[in-house]
Amino acid sequence: MMDRLILFTTKFVNRETISYLIFGVLTTLVDALVFFISNKVFCVEYILATVLAWILAVLFAYFTNKIWVFNSKNIKLELVIKEAFAFFIARLLSLVFTIVWMFLCVEILKLDEFIAKLLANVFVVIMNYFFSKLFIFKSR
């Protein structure tokens, strides 16, 4: 049992996963803050507020993931464009998931918009880690 715990810890608890979680939390805060300000302060409709929050959060996430999480050293323009394109496509899938989730939670289940958004972010952070790790910033 102790061997399994040590194996799990050494395999999944490392600089990359910890920094991903830290920047994932910060990205979620950017997303939630932009959504809250747009939706609750400026009364922007929740779908549009979700899209605005997504755009700013993805920009923040791309740079933090590239530089600090996955230490991507790609500086050739062609590789950066390919990497950024893949990152934004993966995040676009996350946006579609979030919009569908928000619609189901708000319109069908009648949950508060902000609570639904926070719940969506839990799933999105996990999905995005695997997209980034396996497809976007993989070691070449």
Task: Please give a structural write-up.
It is found in: Membrane. Its main location: membrane. It is a multi-pass membrane protein. Belongs to the GtrA family. Pfam families: GtrA_DPMS_TM (PF04138). The protein has one domain. The protein starts with a helix and ends with a helix. It is mainly α and 140 residues long. It is 84% helix and 0% strand.
Order of helices and strands: HHHHH
Percent helix: over 70%
Number of helices: 5
- Catalogue the unreliable spans: none
Query: How far apart are the first and last residues' alpha carbons, in Å?
Result: 35 Å
Integer average pLDDT? 89
Comma- or semicolon-separated keywords:
mainly alpha, 140 residues, 5 helices, Membrane protein, GtrA family, globular
Helices and strands in order, then pairings?
Layout lengths: L1 H11 L2 H27 L4 H24 L7 H32 L4 H24 L4
Helix pairs in contact: 2-3, 2-5, 3-4, 4-5
Structure described in brief:
This protein is mainly α and 140 residues long. Helices cover 84% and strands 0% of the residues.
